[in-house]
């Protein structure tokens, strides 16, 4: 069957079309989906788009809500999202960033999903359109269900606004610079008080089929200070719970091997 | 910026040559910056069919059954093409000059030998429709054990990759499973040396990755001819390859090329042209066959992976007295051009150095990988990497400066090379001197004053006594035990003397005389494009077989005959 | 079923019929007949198909043609004014910034997207702007030089 493109006026209609049809895909910027179309994939036959705007970036108290159709380039241009500029800049080239969306990044298969990793560390919560209703779903749950029984279309993602510029850190290890797919990506939200880390949130990209939280690292950082001794336990636990892939970029072995090295650089603010 | 060093070899140069060092505009530059340069895929034709190919998901498997009945009924399909539809399904590229046996099918019929190998082609009204039809082809496979390592492939009991060469090694001169260089007595050299250093090196396959992928467009022309728009790097090589595979006279094909979006060796194999033309023949319409990037990587041949072992005998004063080199080239599942790469390598070892004892063995090995082919200095750059790494290690062992060490061992005019040819116009000494100068790398006065023109010849011009090799190259099974896995192709103009009448319908349409007997690209002059061949050192060895046809003797490096 | 798509290509209105799922590259090359954007991968990985859509650099091969309804699209075909070359085109010529020429249409459009927004870019910004464009021939240096030279040229266009 040739591909059919369906353009809807609302997310609700789009969600309906996607929910009722295994061979339908929601189209964001298309930077990943169009590759499959071009390679002749017969896994899907319907592309669903919506013209309902979802390109707003809204600050509300300690959180910021980002529309699913916001592009990576738009993030780069948004002053309120300065803490994400570093992550955004390392995704693809300018043309990929001009098209690729936040919503699509949540579904990008490993080793992609750099922004998603950052959003996970920032306590991201997605607003998911399922049929006529909307519900909130923490990104951790969304990633766990992704590719299995998750139906619905993401409308927006709400994230924590880091309390200081230094509280949010991001590193992407890639072979080609400034763009290039990740060997691994680390994002961390490290709120401190009195020199001690409070509730740390550390996320990895490319260390599992989806972005994941590094729970063992988070636990080991709780109440510690960001110095050599303080991070030692976290580094020892760096590879715990990870399930990286062997791919063209790196072997699983290599990814596990270098994870503690880059985690240390991130935690101690050392240069790459 | 380029610099022309006229101080070196001034008497050998004309002084009025003044282009190097200046910018001279490319003749095609205006077209490039305005987008008016016409690449093959910029030819658009009405009613064009799009050809796509089903590829093997297995590294090695027997094909039990292929069912195309559903694909044939798929919407927009003009034609499904299978191996049996290809007039001469088996081909080897250098077969045009009588080098190697036909071993690679255009479309696999009974077996697949690497992942990505083409099995069925579909011509449809759009790429999408072709993909949909391919998804409806059913192939039953029996997966077979695969081998991916050159040394494993040569072990007894290894799976046979390429049935045409049951021992998994290309056959040189129809008999020998490798190429050899024998010069002097390396074993005696090792015994007399102060140090012996043996090291292993490896080069991975390298994809040419031209920005434009391989592809071509073929269309029926007047007089029953076919026009072919192609980015091939060897226009007439490709034309003759297609004529052979399709069993038509070469004047049935009109190739238009000359503009390639990069090639780097990756566009000499005629990967798409034969099927595009066959598609045009079978449908009567223009047919376009363009590789996607993934296909380019999986089906387009890279430079072969190489494993290299070098053993050197070194004196305390820095002289290398013996060098033994063994190289295994990973040809992948079929020959393409690696057989020739190994010959180039044999002609290159021991590198630009004068060493009184040299021993080389060069294997072109079949594995279940993508067939390897030409890529920027294939056969030479890989072994050069190994040789130069080895030179640095030897310099350290001798406690010498690596630049001076190279000058000390460099070949000089009048020296005898391991291939029993006098070294002429050598310039390594000068290259190292300039490199040292540019890098501000201090070398001592005596090395700064050294010259390629002095210090050579004399004792260094002697062919040393060379012991008889007690282990003659393994005689391979040759073609005699080979039973083709597909029915032998019908006798065609390529098997017949040129005068016999053409047999295929396409040929019947022309009143033109048949082409000359050896329709192959020839170098323009007596200068062959490649370095001279190694010669068998052991004079008892049978001489290489006579070159198979007129015009072929000039390919000295391939046939082992002297250049004229 | 074909779907009509209308957009402005290099300031001219154009209309094409596309198949569902057709990308902008196919629409331009096969539909309109503007073959200046090239196919190098179909995966967004090489940049040979770079065009400018609504002032932004876009990869035509991974842009759904139907999503360009009503958009302003620029390609290399629209750069030259009669006999006069755009400063980027002259600079590419003068700096030997092309060999096979296959990356050139995309490279020049990526550069134009940069200069349209940032007429005096730093070298780093130039590198960043062409980070998604692969050139297998030139080694990039001449391209970077050409873009910087075009930016520096007093010539207005
Ligand atoms: C050359 C190149 C380089 C790249 N480099 C990087 C990189 O460095 N880092 C990185 O993270 N990514 C990279 N990507 C991948 C991709 O561009 C980004 O992940 C981008 O954010 C994907 O967004 P999209 O809108 O284009 O997704 P699409 O292609 O539109 O969709 C991707 C998937 O997400 C689903 N989807 C999209 N939007 C929604 C939604 N709102 N709700 C539910 N499902 C949705 C789609 O159905 C599809 O399955 C690269 C891509 C290319 C081509
Ligand atoms: S063809 Fe579009 S990026 Fe390569
Ligand atoms: S000039 Fe050939 S790819 Fe750039």
Structural class of chain A: alpha+beta
Give the overall silhouette of chain A: globular
Strand elements of chain A, count: 14
User: What is the count of helical runs of chain A?
Assistant: 11
Largest beta-sheet characterization of chain A: 5 strands, antiparallel
What is the share of helical residues of chain C? 25-40%
State the strand order across the main sheet of chain C.
2-1-5-3-4
The second-level CATH architecture of the largest domain in chain A is 2-Layer Sandwich
Pattern of helices and strands of chain C: EEHEEEHHHH
Low-pLDDT stretches of chain C: none
What does this protein structure show overall?
The complex is a heterotrimer of chains A (272), B (564) and C (157). Chain A has 272 residues and is of the alpha+beta class. Chain A has helices at 11-19, 33-38, 72-77, 82-89, 94-99, 102-105, 114-121, 139-145, 215-221, 228-236, 252-267, and strands at residues 4-8, 24-26, 46-50, 57-60, 63-67, 125-130, 133-138, 153-160, 168-174, 182-189, 192-193, 196-197, 201-205, 212-213. In chain A, the strands form four sheets. Chain A has a five-stranded antiparallel sheet. A four-stranded antiparallel sheet of chain A has the order 9-10-13-14, with helices on both faces. Chain A has a three-stranded parallel sheet with strand order 1-3-2, covered by helices on one side. The longest helix of chain A is centred in the last third of the chain and has 16 residues, at 252-267. With 564 residues, chain B is α+β, with helices and mostly antiparallel strands. Chain B has helices at 29-34, 69-72, 127-134, 150-153, 186-192, 235-246, 273-283, 293-299, 338-348, 381-398, 402-409, 428-438, 445-448, 505-508, 556-559, and strands at residues 49-55, 61-67, 77-81, 90-91, 104-105, 111-112, 118-124, 138-143, 179-183, 195-203, 215-220, 226-229, 253-256, 287-290, 305-314, 320-332, 358-366. The longest helix of chain B has 18 residues, at 381-398. Helices cover 32% and strands 17% of the residues of chain C. Chain C has helices at residues 24-32, 87-94, 104-117, 123-129, 141-152, and strands at 2-9, 12-19, 50-53, 56-59, 72-74. A five-stranded mixed sheet of chain C has the order 2-1-5-3-4, with helices on both faces. The radius of gyration of chain C is 15 Å and the shape is globular. Classes of the chains: A alpha+beta (272), B alpha+beta (564), C alpha+beta (157). Chains in contact: A-B, A-C, B-C. The B-C interface holds B 23, 25-26, 28-35, 37, 39, 41-42, 44, 126, 128, 209-213, 260-264, 290, 292-294 and C 19, 21, 29-30, 33, 35-36, 38-43, 45-46, 48, 75-77, 79-80, 85, 88-90, 92-93, 96, 98-105, 108, 134-137. Bound molecules: flavin-adenine dinucleotide and FE2/S2 (inorganic) cluster (2 copies). One FE2/S2 (inorganic) cluster is lined by residues 98-103, 135-138 of chain C.
């Amino acid at each position: 069957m040739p591909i059919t493109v369906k353009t809807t006026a609302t997310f609700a209609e789009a969600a309906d079309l996607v929910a009722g049809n295994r061979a339908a895909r929601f189209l964001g910027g298309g930077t990943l989906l169009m590759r499959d179309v071009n390679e002749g994939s017969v896994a899907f036959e319907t592309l669903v788009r919506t013209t309902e705007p979802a390109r707003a970036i809204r600050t509300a108290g300690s959180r910021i809500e980002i529309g699913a159709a916001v592009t990576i380039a738009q993030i780069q241009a948004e002053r309120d999202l300065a803490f994400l500029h570093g992550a955004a800049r390392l995704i693809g080239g300018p043309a990929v960033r001009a098209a690729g969306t936040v919503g699509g990044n949540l579904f990008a298969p490993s080793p992609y999903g750099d922004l998603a990793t950052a959003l996970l560390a920032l306590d991201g919560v997605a607003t998911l359109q399922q049929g006529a209703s909307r519900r909130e779903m923490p990104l951790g749950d969304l990633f766990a269900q992704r590719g299995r029984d998750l139906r619905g279309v993401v409308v927006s993602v709400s994230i924590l606004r880091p309390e200081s510029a230094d509280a949010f850190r991001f590193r992407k290890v890639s072979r080609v610079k400034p763009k290039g797919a990740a060997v691994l990506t680390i994002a961390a939200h490290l709120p401190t008080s009195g020199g001690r880390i409070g509730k740390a949130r550390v996320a990895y990209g490319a260390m599992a089929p989806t972005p994941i939280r590094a729970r063992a690292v988070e636990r080991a950082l709780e109440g510690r200070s960001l110095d050599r001794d303080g991070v030692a336990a976290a580094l020892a636990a760096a590879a715990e719970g990870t399930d990286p892939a062997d791919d063209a970029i790196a072997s699983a072995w290599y990814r596990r091997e270098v994870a503690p090295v880059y985690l240390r650089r991130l935690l101690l603010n050392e240069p790459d | 910026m380029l610099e022309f060093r006229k101080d070196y070899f001034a008497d050998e140069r004309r002084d009025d040559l003044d282009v190097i060092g200046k910018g001279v505009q490319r003749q095609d530059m205006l077209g490039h910056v305005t987008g008016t340069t016409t690449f093959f895929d910029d030819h658009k034709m009405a009613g064009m069919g799009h050809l796509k190919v089903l590829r093997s998901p297995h590294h090695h498997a027997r094909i039990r059954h292929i069912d195309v009945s559903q694909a044939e009924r798929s919407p927009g399909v003009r034609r499904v093409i299978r191996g049996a539809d290809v007039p001469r399904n088996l081909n080897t590229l250098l077969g045009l000059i009588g080098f190697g046996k036909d071993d690679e099918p255009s479309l696999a019929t009974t077996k697949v030998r690497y992942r990505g190998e083409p099995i069925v082609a579909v011509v449809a009204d759009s790429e999408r429709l072709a993909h949909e039809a391919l998804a409806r082809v059913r192939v039953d496979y029996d997966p077979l054990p695969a081998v991916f390592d050159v040394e494993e492939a040569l072990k007894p009991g290894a799976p046979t990759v390429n049935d045409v060469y049951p021992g998994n090694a290309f056959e040189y001169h129809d008999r020998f499973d490798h190429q050899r260089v024998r010069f002097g007595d390396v074993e005696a050299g090792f015994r007399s040396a102060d140090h012996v250093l043996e090291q292993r090196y490896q080069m991975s396959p390298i994809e040419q990755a031209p920005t434009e992928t391989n592809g071509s467009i073929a269309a029926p022309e007047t007089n029953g001819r076919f026009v072919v728009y192609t980015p091939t790097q060897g226009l007439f090589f490709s034309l003759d390859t297609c004529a052979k595979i399709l069993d038509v006279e070469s004047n049935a094909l009109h190739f238009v090329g000359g503009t390639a979006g990069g090639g780097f060796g990756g566009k000499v194999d005629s990967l798409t042209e034969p099927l595009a033309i066959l598609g045009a023949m079978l449908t009567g319409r223009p047919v376009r066959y363009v590789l996607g990037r993934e296909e380019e990587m999986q089906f387009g041949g890279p430079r072969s992976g190489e494993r290299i072992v070098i053993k050197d005998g070194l004196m305390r004063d820095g002289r290398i007295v013996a060098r033994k080199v063994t190289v295994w080239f990973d040809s992948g599942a079929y020959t393409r051009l690696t057989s020739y790469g190994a010959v180039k390598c044999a002609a290159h070892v021991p590198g630009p150095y004068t060493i009184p004892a040299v021993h080389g063995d060069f294997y072109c090995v079949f594995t279940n990988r993508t067939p390897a082919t030409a890529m920027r200095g294939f056969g030479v750059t890989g072994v050069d990497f190994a040789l130069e790494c080895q030179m640095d290690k030897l310099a350290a062992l001798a406690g010498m400066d690596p630049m001076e060490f190279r000058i000390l061992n460099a070949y000089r005019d009048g020296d005898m090379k391991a291939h029993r040819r006098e070294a002429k116009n050598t310039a390594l000494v000068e290259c190292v001197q300039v490199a040292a100068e540019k890098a501000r790398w201090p070398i001592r006065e005596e090395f700064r004053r050294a010259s390629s023109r002095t210090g050579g010849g004399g004792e260094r011009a002697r062919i040393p006594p060379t012991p008889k090799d007690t282990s003659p190259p393994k005689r391979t099974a040759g073609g005699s035990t080979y039973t083709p896995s597909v029915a032998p192709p019908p006798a065609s103009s390529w098997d017949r003397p040129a005068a016999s009448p053409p047999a295929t319908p396409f040929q019947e349409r022309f009143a033109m005389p048949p082409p000359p007997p050896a329709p192959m690209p020839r170098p323009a002059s007596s200068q062959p494009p490649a370095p001279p061949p190694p010669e068998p050192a052991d004079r008892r060895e049978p001489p290489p077989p006579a070159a198979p046809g007129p015009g072929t003797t000039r390919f000295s490096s391939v046939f082992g005959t002297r250049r004229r | 079923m074909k779907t009509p798509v209308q957009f402005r290509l290099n300031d001219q209105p154009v209309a094409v019929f596309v198949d569902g799922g057709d990308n902008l590259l196919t629409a331009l090359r096969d539909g309109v007949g503007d073959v200046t954007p090239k196919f190098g991968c179909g995966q967004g990985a090489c940049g040979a198909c770079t065009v400018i859509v609504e002032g932004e650099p876009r990869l035509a091969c991974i842009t759904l043609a139907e999503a360009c309804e009503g958009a302003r699209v620029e390609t290399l075909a629209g750069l030259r004014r009669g006999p006069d070359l755009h400063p980027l085109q002259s600079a590419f010529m003068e700096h030997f910034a092309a060999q096979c020429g296959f990356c050139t249409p995309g490279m020049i459009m990526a550069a134009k997207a940069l200069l349209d927004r940032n007429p005096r870019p730093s070298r780093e910004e130039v590198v960043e702007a062409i980070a998604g464009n692969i050139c297998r021939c030139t080694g990039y240096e001449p391209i970077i030089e050409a873009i910087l030279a075009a930016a520096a040229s007093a010539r207005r266009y």
